[in-house]
Specification:
Elements lengths: L2 E2 L2 E2 L7 H4 L13 H12 L10 E7 L3 H7 L4 H7 L4 E8 L1 E3 L5 E3 L3 H18 L3 E5 L4 H7 L6 E10 L9 H5 L22
Antiparallel strand pairs: 1-2, 3-4, 4-8, 5-6, 7-8
Helix pairs in contact: 2-5
This protein binds flavin mononucleotide.
The site of flavin mononucleotide has 10 residues, from strand 7.
């Protein structure tokens, strides 16, 4: 079976699923606006319940005021390495929808749908020769204020996008963790017929 990045698939899959991983060592080189928009184009085509497309993305390119603002909303542990990204993205989901009668109702799949869009972005990023690293470590209240997020939106995560740099560019503790991770065996999370508790 396919083996890439010291990751071995037990069943035949496309190599992109093993190739994609979340590094922290980034070169900090510039990313063009068009190049970045092409990554969001992939997210655009993600499926969503009733085709509501509840995902929202706020991006900033390195070297801009927006980049500094966005970086400041990340937890310190993430700022340490994400500061070298070429672009930072905050991913939001629209938590409510307006019905045909004008009623504002919770959109139950906003997070699920936005997760699909994030992963389309992540795979396209990998295909384009960049890497994407998601971060839940973000100060959501700070991000809402700093990025002027309107009500009925949830900050889901942030993402650092960059070109892979040598692990030697990282502080010692992060350098040790700089490798593609492994996964549980499929038998632990795929069940036939009914749920099987551990
Ligand atoms: C929603 C989400 C939140 C994450 N939050 C963080 C984070 O705050 N900081 C970090 O360094 N990595 C974060 N990660 C990266 C995960 O640790 C990583 O995806 C996981 O260990 C699997 O490794 P891989 O992406 O290299 O395959 C996050 C990933 C996801 C999908």
């Amino acid at each position: 079976m396919t083996e890439i990045n010291h990751r071995k698939a037990d069943h035949p899959i496309h190599s992109i699923f093993l190739e994609r991983w979340s590094p922290r060592a980034f070169t900090g080189e510039d990313i063009g606006k068009e190049e970045l928009l092409a990554l969001f184009e992939a997210a655009r085509w993600a499926p969503s319940a009733s085709n509501l497309q509840p995902w929202r993305f706020i991006y900033a390119r390195r070297g801009t005021d927006s980049f500094a603002r966005l970086l400041s909303t990340l937890d310190e542990g993430n700022q340490r390495w994400a500061k070298n990204a070429s672009a930072l993205v905050v991913i939001l989901s629209k938590t409510h929808r307006v019905t045909s009668s004008g009623e504002v109702r919770p959109a139950s799949t906003h997070a699920f749908d936005t997760g699909a869009a994030w992963f389309a972005l992540a795979l396209q990023t990998q295909l384009a020769g960049w890497h994407a690293h998601a971060m839940a470590g973000i100060d959501r209240d700070k991000a809402i204020k700093a990025l002027e997020v309107p009500e009925h939106h949830r900050v889901e995560a942030a993402v650092a996008i960059g070109k892979l740099a040598e692990p030697s560019t990282l502080p010692d503790d992060l350098r040790e963790r700089e490798k593609p991770s492994q996964r549980k065996p499929i038998g632990e999370f795929v069940f036939e017929g009914r749920f099987r508790a551990d």
